[in-house]
Amino acid sequence: MTPILFSVSYSGSWGQARLSVEQFVDKAAGLGFGGVMLGGKRPHLSPLDWSGPARAALRSHLEAAGLRENVVAGYNNFTADLEHGEVPMGEIQIAYVTELCRLAHDVGAGVVRVFTGYEHPAKGYLAQWNLLVDCLRECARRAAELGVTLAVQNHHDLAVDYRSHRDLLEAVGEPSCRAGFDAWSQALQGVDLREAARAMAPLTAHTTVADYQRRPRFLYEPEVINYRAGTPYSQAVPMGEGFIDYRGFFAGLREGGFDGTVAYEMCSPLLGGGSEENLDRYARRFLEYFREL
After folding, report:
1. What range defines the domain where residue 101 resides?
2. Tens of pLDDT, residues 152-174
């Protein structure tokens, strides 16, 4: 397994420190990571902003930094805007994913992370499932032509359960469409992470990790002079300090034969703030934790 660092961590998206792509590449190399996952949208690796010469320069920069296990992260939602059937949203997103695959090829990244879809009230579950299978199948075939593998992350609503995730990949039936299987959503569902990871490992090309502590929430109801429990808030904390059983998760991945990339992400407000120094502290702690495992 190769530890890599996700550029969203230094994107400024949650008020934290923001680095350019080139600055981030140097940061990841300096911290000791073996590769990077570059966000396929602004402010980082949007296909709109990266021309042929810029792609070649970035590839050279990555190689010079010794970062050779690299991933591009897509931000798609194949079930978006289903209430407006005249808009070819599926085609639009397939075009976006295809362009990310071309971008990944050009910068020397072998994997593109994609999402599934959020359940939409405009159509039934089966119709959305079939749409997702069709879109992923076409994306996977186009990715294969570019020598790129798709890693489908269990993040959005559809196929977020690991058994459904496996069903989805089998339905797509393309060798270039594999799993970007993560522990976070499974931990929130209360499943056995070791068992789930062992089952998914043979299908998994990539995983993304972060750790969290639960913070209880309560909503005041004045008519009963009391509080009603709300959904707990997930507070990002350094690796090993949260509730996610990463020891069991990585043990299951090893037992199942996984040997892909492991991206560390800081994709929500961190305990301790968003300074560059705190981001670096979290990243170093991840590497220490990962090596301990």
Report:
1. 2-292
2. 999 999 999 999 999 999 999 99
